[in-house]
Amino acid sequence: MRVVMFGYQTWGHRTLQALLDSEHDVVMVVTHPKSEHAYEKIWSDSVADLAEEHGVPVVIRNRPDDEELFARLKEADADIIVANNWRTYIPSRIYDLPRHGTLNVHDSLLPKYAGFSPLIWALINGETEVGVTAHMMDEVLDAGDIVLQQSVAVGPTDTATDLFHKTVDLIAPVTVGALDRIAAGETEFTKQDRSQASFFHKRAEEDIRIDWSWPAEVLERLVRAQSAPYPSAFTFHKGKRLEIVSAVVSEGLYGGTPGRVFYREGEGVAIVAGADARTGRNHGLAITRVRTEDGRELPATEYFTSMGGYLTSRP
Question: Nearest to residue 244, comparing CAs of 201, 275, 273?
Fold first, then answer.
């Protein structure tokens, strides 16, 4: 099939590479300009560079809503558009233009975790599996019929970076497998159960601020979800920002006020956590490594020279 590809960052790069390696003919690529947004500088393999290396025409757009692009898409005469990690709204006159419409590739197990940063949100929420879904695009975000979906398990110590590497390897088989079904003439695919749909927004500074009223189990997953190269989860100690690089759920139960720097436990320092911490029935978050405002990374047992005081959400 003649394919036009819409995509950005490493997800788009992997999708384009899979298409180039397949029997399908990539006739045009549309991608976004480079961004200085913190999350868009991560996993930033260039779709444009890969396309140009293979002699594929490239169009750079923030939004695909101008007449020049529409004319070029008509001229490309594609059988299908394949999109992955396209960051802005694609109008229906574009996604319906090819003979077979548009196939969107999304890094979650739809209908759950539509929208942005699905792996990070899924890890924070304690999901046991994540994956990649190829679905037909329609007027509702990430809501079209599912053509192909594959999943991988979330391990007990997996970080968001681990899950990225697990799921990015699914892009090629899911994309090409879905295209093969479409090329074979299939038109009936799996309807999404919209009662199970959930939508998530882009990650921002506020989303990595630690709230010590959250249970320690959730905070531990937040720290893993904000693993390098993502910005680390942070708190404040004595008015200064302190990033939490690694942490585990404490073995002991610690009661009192959330955020209290309580006790050295093993290789970490236990912090009281949970809205009902006063009951003494909660595990704490045992911080093992921190990073200070000046960029020093060190064991928590070296940073916290004495117990007592509080970690807070604000200075």
Answer: 273
Pairing outcome for strands 261-265 and 268-271: antiparallel
Residues 136/100, Cβ–Cβ less than 8 Å:
no
Spatial separation of the C-alpha atoms in residues 268 and 36, rounded to whole Å:
35
Tokens of 256: 């009192």
CB 58 within 8 A of CB 31: yes
CA distance 315 to 306: 20
Q: Peptide bond preceding 229: is omega within 30 degrees of 0, i.e. cis?
A: yes
Separation of CA 279 from chain center: 35
Run of H or E residues at 135: strand 129-136
Please give the chain's pLDDT, 315 residues, in tens: 999 999 999 999 999 999 999 999 999 999 999 877 777 778 889 999 999 999 999 999 999 999 999 999 999 999 999 999 999 999 999 999 999 999 999 999 999 999 999 999 999 999 999 999 999 999 999 999 999 999 999 999 999 999 999 999 999 999 999 999 999 999 999 999 999 999 999 999 999 999 999 999 999 999 999 999 999 999 999 999 999 999 999 999 999 999 999 999 999 999 999 999 999 999 999 999 999 999 999 999 999 999 999 999 999
**Is the entire prediction scored with pTM above 0.85?**
yes
